Amino acid sequence: MPATLVAPHVAPVTTFVEELSSWERTVALYASDMPTTYHCLGRQDSNLLGWISQGVARLGREETRRRASYLAGYRRVWLRELVTPQIARRHSERFPSVRRLTAAEDKSASSIMSLIRIAPTARNFPVVIDGPCPTCDGAGKLWSTWVVDAEADWTETGYRPCWLCQSEDDAA
Ligand SMILES: [Zn+2]
Description:
The chain has helices at 13-18, 22-31, 46-59, 61-79, 85-94, 98-115; strands at residues 141-149, 154-161. It is mainly α. It has a domain at 13-123. It has a two-stranded antiparallel sheet with strand order 1-2. A hairpin with a 4-residue loop joins β1 (141-149) and β2. The chain is elongated. It binds zinc ion (ZN). Residues 133, 135-136, 140, 162, 164-165 line the site of zinc ion.
């Protein structure tokens, strides 16, 4: 097995990065020495791999994952324009530079499209909203009425899992 880059891990860097979700790669790039204005060198840009490894080494695997979960949660709320002041404040404490975060998200996407796939295990990724959920206030469920059979005019009312914080989409 050829050694690729110097990294603080036993496994080759490629394997290591494959096991990171796009959110984790973003967090790692943000924490790395990558210049904010960096432009990718094309399909085989190994600099990105080096920076992703560096960022994870700096933060630690667990902290990288924790921040990535919050970032994914923030994006989910942000996409629906439901960000509360508390969620916004915690997010900007974690990522003070919007410009750098945008750059890191962009390069993370590049690393997936042109360089390194995401291993299936990396897709099991918890999306966490850092603060009470804007739609269910943290209860995880919503009281609602839904149609069981429209023709029979049959509806039911009760608690259902919150569509915002309990959703399992966009995990990777
Ligand atoms: Zn909720």
